[in-house]
Amino acid sequence: MHNNNLFVNAFVICSILLFSVPQSFNQNVGPLVKMTNGEVWPKPVLQRSYDEYLTFEPENFHFNITGYSCDDLQDAFKRYNSMLFLKATKTFKQHISLSTKFIIDEIEISNAGGHLFASSIWGILRGLETFSQLVYLETDGSTFVIRCTSIVDYPKFRHRGFLLDTSRHYYPIESITKTLDAMSYSKMNVFHWHMVDDNSFPYQSSAFPNLSERGAFGKSAIYTKNDVKYVIEYARLRGIRVIPEIDTPGHSLSWRLGGIPGLLAQCSDSDPNHFGPIDPTIEENYNFINTLLAEVNELFLDNYLHLGGDEVNTTCWTTNKRIQTFMHRNNIKNVTELKNYYFTHIFNMTRNLKALPIVWEEIFDEKINLDSNVVVHVWKGGYNYSIVSEIMKSGHPVLFSSCWYMNYIKYGTDWPNFYRCDPTAVAGNNRLFLGGEACMWGEFADEANLLPTSWPRTCAVAEVLWSHRLNETEAKYRIEEHVCRMRRRGIPAQPANGPSYCHY
Q1: pLDDT-derived band of residue 2, with 50, 70 and 90 as boundaries?
Q2: Euclidean distance between CA atoms 227 and 235, whole angstroms
Q3: How far is CA 212 from CA 134, 202, 464, in A?
Q4: Hey, is 78 helix, strand or coil?
Q5: Residues marked as catalytic
């Protein structure tokens, strides 16, 4: 959908800052870590700052477009113009001049020349985010300042994603759009929507409306097609793709309520209410899945479709006499071969849909026959990167999430744990390594704690996926500022490093 190999040169009104790292205060007095002012997150590739500062008159500032323009760009300018000076209220509307003769009142945007260069509109969006982070509010609470700086920047990896599970708990659309906002503030570009699972089926299918009518938590816990379209457009305007996941054949217990006869495997004749994964031996089930995937693929527009495939409890396949008879008749020796039989059908569907499939790593581990374009999503093993090399050697693209599970929480400063998880060395320059995703599984997360649990911890993942130079010691000062920046923009990010205070 987007060109993710962006080249961004933010040469913004004499723009970004040197990293003169402040020292921590005494641990018993004031903030544990003193935040920076006007530093960028994620860290840019190249940055040069100068000992010269400019101030703004918020009421006079505007963006001036030279060259290429479109509605999306105008939308971005309006959005960033409103974010830049959130504290410029009537309480201190008049500009308070610092000891400088410079006042900024415009920034030029151009593809061919000017203050910001980018190879696409998506690069311009990243450059606007960078520019907005350079602007900071002085401690007097009324003066907006920028340090003269030049930047050359581009992402290390193409896929910088965030997975949200909306089955274990339903999230209102506002929670999802705020998540998209937070992603854009750290230059993440893929929203992985794990829509349905065992616990509920909130997606409202046109072809099979009973799936959500009976399988969602309630009538107010459903995502209509209009809801989905709204999320996709909201994300697009922020340079974010939306990839849906329809996980099968496991993680599908809620589907049984949709009234599809024989969809799930009955575990035994003696217990008619005990069901397992989708029954792979019934031809009608493939017709149903094909119709559902075609509908989802058409709605979401992205080239990729996540098919799941993880944690399939095959016990019911082995205890179901009819399934065992089918396996014997078709010379299918074990449940792994039966799973291969199932995914052969599924990959035929994605081929016909011209969708690029993504699967969880079990499908690779179990040596299921994969088309060459199937992306393998690694989630096991923590800091063990060996599976990444193995997958790339097999010729398959890779996504990585193993040590970026945001739903695992503990007391204290834990963003460095995600920051230290860096697959760059094993990925090297191999184009098969697409990038990775932070994952927020929903068993113990809902709209009340989604945002503070996810942020700024996910910011650490964003920097690993974007930045070519990682320095945890230096990053702790910038992430402290980024937390305050996100709060100022309406994201209730939790403290990053302990005792602290945002003066704006």
Answers
A1: very low
A2: 12
A3: 45, 5, 37
A4: helix
A5: 311
